[in-house]
Amino acid sequence: MSLEKIRNFSIIAHIDHGKSTIADRLIQMTGALTDREMKEQVLDSMDIERERGITIKAQSARLRYTAKDGEEYILNLIDTPGHVDFTYEVSRSLAACEGALLVVDAAQGVEAQTMANVYLALEHDLEIIPVLNKVDLPSAEPERVKQQIEEVIGLDASDAIECSAKTGFGIDAILEALVKRVPPPKGDPNGPPKALVVDSWYDNYLGVVSLARVYDGELKAGSKIRFMGVGMDYPLDAVGYLTPVLQKVPSLKAGDVGCVMAGIKVVKDARVGDTITDARNPAPEALPGFEEAKPMVFAGLYPVDSADYEDLKEALEKLSLNDAAISYETETSPALGFGVRCGFLGMLHMEIIQERLEREFDLDLVTTAPTVVYQVELTDGTSVEVHSPADLPAQNKREAILEPFILASIMAPSEYMGAVMTLCTERRGIQRDMNYISDTRVMIQYEMPLSEVVMDFFDRLKSATKGYASLDYQMLDYREGKLVKLDILINGDPVDALSVIVHADKADMRGRELAKKMKEIIHRQMFDVAVQAAIGAKIIARETVKALRKNVTAKCYGGDITRKRKLLEKQKAGKKRMKQIGRVEIPQEAFLAVLKVD
Ligand code: GDP
Ligand code: MG
């Protein structure tokens, strides 16, 4: 296939605007799959993903399409993850394309992640084709949304395509536009091979499979390849296309997008963004921009039953076969025993890993409140990275604590702007910009500490705007903050896993609220439990959980044995997520309580 007949494209959209449904339709219309093979939402392959309605790992499909000009074209669809936690992966997928469909829900209009994705696409010089989806909805206003695309994004929307992925209307127009408007790939078919790793995943039978976009040369099965960033050579066992079912071919040529299988054992060795070349005929330099995904948020994961510790480690090892961004190290907590401290790209990444550990590996875990990475400057002139409040060097040893800042972009209807601004200010935000994107919608930008966003910010934002706000953020830098460690003591003993790093101005209030919250959460025991909040040696709050006097089952007077049993079973189930600390049982909610106070 000559380069002239290839089109490489992605679909970018705010979540729920219809990216996956459009992808399904494109696959269906080009006959890549028979109806029987056409499961709903083929591209979202993992269960959790489907339930959450988001795409975690990028996947792709090679579509054959005979255009109105009578010629057959190859359309390579490269699916991108749609969430801010995975920005680097989105960026790499877009780097492999010449064009992008910009899908905007014609009833919702432009949202924060629409903008973020457009910026990424523009950075890669992609031809952007605006697509207004869901025009079947009575509330669709395609003309208004076109105007918004022109005014807010600055893209020409005069030949935007109106479609409905639900009814199939307009899908043929999208296929034609891809052929006519997206430029064919450029490259030197005879040069030394150069291919970009767009995605890598672990397959039980094949080992690591990488999806790669070939720029120059040819990757031949049987040759020896080199991953230039990681610096490792492998024999190339096989290459193939995803149609979306894997179809092996003798080689991948310049302009192609396809799979590379080289018997690699973990995805860390075939990283997204790395350049593949031929080990015997290597390219002089790698493609630009290979980065390692850096964890931004850390949390402790502890098995409820300490006997499950080895299982937890084994499960994490398995998960990291497939997730190069996950990192973990052993952690011991005097309170919680053996566990791991895990690094995540962001909050969503963290939730997904926790859920997979519990669901796929059947582990009951206690999770500590997530913390960002702090840089602590010490009095001896050195500095350390701190991933856990428990590791914060003592006050007399530290000079300064620096915390990561982000630029948050929020879009919401103008009537909620007051509430949004109040929330951002409470979270130590500094307003940077504010623009009307239509008569009724505003985009506002704040510089904010990441730690404040980790603390329940998105849920608060949603409730402050009745669900109408959208959020996107990017990392800025590290800044010095007036930060202190707030400890919680149970019956006089500090519980390391309950410590948090907070801003000094808020520490007193947080301490009081946290102690109060703990009092509500900790069940009454057979004895009084003292809950204290402290900063250094100073106790700032004290609450008491009063001792239980009566037997719980006592209220089931009479001989109602089934009711009694039910109550006992309920107690047992409630116990699942408890940790015994000293003589006191602490429920899981206590470890996350800090996220719920402000
Ligand atoms: P994604 O998050 O961008 O991948 O969005 P999905 O493709 O998962 O779609 C989000 C929701 O919108 C799903 O419930 C779809 O069934 C629905 N949807 C997608 N396209 C259309 C459309 O053209 N019309 C209508 N009415 N609903 C649609
Ligand atoms: Mg989707």
UniProtKB/TrEMBL annotation:
The keyword Iron does not apply. GO terms for cellular component: plasma membrane. It is a peripheral membrane protein. Signal peptide: none annotated. It is found in: Cell membrane. It is an enzyme of class 3 (hydrolase). The keyword Hydrolase applies. GO terms for biological process: positive regulation of translation. Gene3D superfamilies: 3.30.70.240, Elongation factor 4, C-terminal domain (3.30.70.2570), Elongation Factor G (Translational Gtpase), domain 3 (3.30.70.870), P-loop containing nucleotide triphosphate hydrolases (3.40.50.300), Translation factors (2.40.30.10). Its EC number is 3.6.5.n1. GTP binds at D16, H17, G18, K19, S20, T21, N133, K134, V135, D136. It catalyses: GTP + H2O = GDP + phosphate + H(+). It holds the Pfam family GTP_EFTU_D2. GO terms for molecular function: GTP binding; GTPase activity; guanosine tetraphosphate binding; ribosome binding; translation elongation factor activity. It comes from the Bacteria. Its main location: membrane. Residues 4-186 form the Tr-type G domain. PANTHER family: TRANSLATION FACTOR GUF1 HOMOLOG, CHLOROPLASTIC (PTHR43512:SF4), TRANSLATION FACTOR GUF1-RELATED (PTHR43512). Required for accurate and efficient protein synthesis under certain stress conditions. May act as a fidelity factor of the translation reaction, by catalyzing a one-codon backward translocation of tRNAs on improperly translocated ribosomes. Back-translocation proceeds from a post-translocation (POST) complex to a pre-translocation (PRE) complex, thus giving elongation factor G a second chance to translocate the tRNAs correctly. Binds to ribosomes in a GTP-dependent manner. Belongs to the TRAFAC class translation factor GTPase superfamily. Classic translation factor GTPase family. LepA subfamily. This is Elongation factor 4.
